[in-house]
Task: structure prediction
Amino acid sequence: MIILTDEIAMTANRRQYTIGNPCKGGLNDKQYFTRLENALQEAVRIAVRLEIADGSITELRQVIAEQTRLEQTFSEKLKGVYV
Result:
């Protein structure tokens, strides 16, 4: 399991990538993807949505900046692991 944020993690098997909320022994609220790109896009969407919900992001320009930052951060965490 790769922890992307405190609330988002990713696993994979031969057929799919799974993202969800990390918990003891696995993931809760799982979502499944056949393509890594789609799993990363959804992880970024979830992370941004959570930051908007908790008030960390309050402006559109912050959304765009955070999306860019998260895409870079998540890609770095996965470099060489799944690709």
User: Anything to note?
Assistant: Strands lie at 2-5, 8-12, 17-23, 26-33.
